[in-house]
User: Which sequence fits this backbone?
């Protein structure tokens, strides 16, 4: 199994961010961390400030946040969470020893619209150098830079952040998306790659942001799973280059929660096999390219996943854990992050983790307490945090 020496995107990484980079690489293959988006902001339990804490006795090992609307100068994000509260919880996560990740659901630079008004022809071209909105967009990136460096540790240094811009670009629902080889948008993959490189160059070189690891995260639903070659081609569609990516991520709701009946019914065993295949691709490419691998967003195993195993009460252990530990490359996938526990998503595939009283709560607890999985109370002390030795 070939691998190369990891080199960060930023050769001037701050000491705490470099410590995290090195520690994550050292941990790759040894265990996987369980994460959660907006863990303490969005929950069902009244027993604690986290559904995961209430069920499993600890906070997640990876905390996800989003800074959508920072580009507009708002005081709160896309989900109406005040940025002051987000900064507080990012610092808290860091102090607990958790890894902090940050996505950016930005509005469209032309329409300034979000969901439902996020696509407009020529948007990426307009924000690239020479485009009509380039200077405007640099202003947006300036707001991003300010936010990325605004959360300090006890020594006054910006905390390390895994930044995941322009996610799910292989779909067709965000303004930055080139789509996939089979379903391209009007944005060329080369333009997407140029947007990514421009963003990194600006943050790192122009604004001196040195506390960030950069995560690439295509959407699984548009990747052709016919063969290893089509999987890799789809995964790398729009890839900006190894020198611009620290983490090879993956957003996969598609394989984990589908209908069991009706015209769109799927086979859980087939989807489990494809889930293993896409995790294997991410882990293998990470190993070969000196990158970290992560399931940067992942669906919630429920009725569909439960139909894969022998016991309908064990979707987390039977479906998710068996995929995570399927082979040496899936074991390199270093974290799994379900989306937020929003009440409106309970009936959909984006619903995140079981709350106390859920029929899957006990299986979820077994999953996150498996020897291969980690919560915040069992991760190493990454970079001067209060994690565990």
Assistant:
């Amino acid at each position: 199994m070939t691998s190369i020496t990891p080199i960060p995107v930023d050769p001037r990484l701050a000491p705490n961010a470099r410590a995290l980079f090195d520690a994550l690489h050292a941990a790759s293959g040894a265990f996987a961390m369980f994460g959660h988006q907006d863990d303490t902001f969005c929950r069902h339990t009244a027993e604690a400030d986290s559904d995961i804490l209430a069920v499993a006795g600890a906070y997640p090992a990876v905390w996800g946040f989003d800074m959508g609307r920072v580009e507009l100068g708002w005081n709160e994000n896309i989900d109406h969470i005040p940025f002051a509260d987000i900064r507080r919880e990012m610092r808290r996560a860091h102090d607990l020893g958790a890894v902090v990740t940050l996505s950016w659901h930005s509005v469209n630079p032309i329409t300034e619209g979000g969901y439902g008004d996020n696509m407009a022809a020529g948007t990426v071209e307009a924000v690239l150098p020479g485009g009509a909105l380039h200077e405007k967009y640099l202003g947006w990136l300036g707001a991003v830079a300010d936010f990325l460096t605004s959360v300090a540790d006890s020594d006054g240094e910006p905390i390390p952040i895994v930044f995941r811009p322009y996610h799910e670009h292989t779909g067709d629902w965000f303004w930055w998306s080139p789509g996939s080889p089979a379903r391209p948008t009007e944005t060329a993959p080369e333009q997407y790659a140029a947007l990514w490189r421009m963003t990194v160059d600006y943050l790192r070189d122009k604004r001196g942001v040195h506390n960030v690891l950069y995560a690439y995260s295509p959407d699984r639903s548009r990747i052709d799973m016919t063969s290893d070659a089509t999987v890799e081609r789809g995964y790398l569609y729009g890839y900006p280059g190894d020198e611009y990516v620290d983490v090879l991520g993956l957003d996969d709701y598609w394989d984990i929660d589908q209908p069991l009946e009706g015209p769109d019914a799927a086979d859980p065993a087939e989807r489990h096999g494809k889930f293993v295949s896409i995790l294997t691709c991410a882990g293998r490419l990470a190993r070969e390219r000196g990158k970290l691998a992560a399931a940067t967003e992942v669906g919630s195993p429920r009725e569909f996943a439960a139909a894969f195993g022998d016991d309908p009460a064990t979707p987390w252990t039977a479906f998710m854990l068996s995929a995570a530990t399927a082979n040496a490359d899936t074991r390199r996938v270093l974290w799994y992050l379900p989306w937020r526990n929003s009440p409106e998503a309970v009936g959909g595939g984006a619903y995140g983790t079981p709350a106390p009283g859920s029929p899957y709560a006990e299986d979820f607890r077994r999953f996150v307490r498996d020897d291969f999985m980690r919560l915040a109370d069992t991760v190493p002390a990454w970079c001067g945090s209060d994690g565990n030795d």
